[in-house]
Design brief:
The protein is built from eleven helices and no strands.
């Protein structure tokens, strides 16, 4: 039966509640210390219901990881517009991503995911491969810019890594490791990074 208010079925609402509860559990206790019993309790469902939706704790963690990657991709997704300047479009991508990195829930989940990836490198490699298959992101914008002859890039993957290397050094890693923030200088940092990037790749 579909609820008229949120358009979800009873099963879909339970599924969402379990995911939310698992994120809270992972944030509080980490992956290794997370308990399926506590996840069921947090979601206000039976343990059997949890396993009906997710066969294992690994499956729950994978869903949380994919959600994390999806949010990262979504923030960096922008349709290339040849009528607008490259600077303005890249700056918008950078600003949207910076805003995502400021969200406490996102940062906490990122810390949990990274900690587990350090423990299990194979899981990290598999997750990165799945992330690469997601639509959108900076890669798509760069490809469209190249196709429109606005940029000249031979290696899109390398250019993407370079752009995020410039950005995350100020917007993401300091927050993840509690090393301070650069939010007050955000506009200047983004402008400088975009200028450096375009100096290398503008057609």
């Amino acid at each position: 039966m579909i609820d008229k208010q949120d358009g979800q079925t009873h099963s879909q609402r339970k599924h969402a509640a379990i995911l939310k509860a698992s994120r809270e559990e992972f944030l509080l206790n980490g992956f290794a210390g997370a308990s399926m019993d506590r996840i069921a309790e947090r979601a206000c469902v039976s343990k059997r219901t949890v396993y009906n939706h997710f066969p294992s704790k690994d499956a729950l963690f994978e869903s949380s990881t994919l959600e994390l990657w999806s949010r990262i991709k979504e923030a960096a997704t922008l349709k290339f517009d040849p009528s607008l300047s490259l600077e303005s479009q890249l700056s918008r991508i950078a600003h949207n991503s910076w805003e995502l990195y400021r969200q406490r829930e996102f940062l906490e989940l990122a810390r949990v995911v990274m900690a587990e990836f350090i423990r299990t490198p194979q899981q990290a490699a598999e997750a990165m491969e799945k992330m690469a298959q997601l639509e959108g992101g900076l890669e798509t914008w760069l490809k469209d810019a190249v196709n429109n002859r606005a940029l000249k890039i031979e290696d899109i993957e390398l250019a993407t890594t370079q752009f995020w290397g410039l950005m995350k050094a100020f917007s993401f890693w300091p927050k993840v490791f509690h090393l301070g923030e650069h939010d007050e200088r955000r506009q200047d940092i983004i402008a400088a990074n975009v200028e450096m990037f375009l100096a290398r790749y503008r057609a």
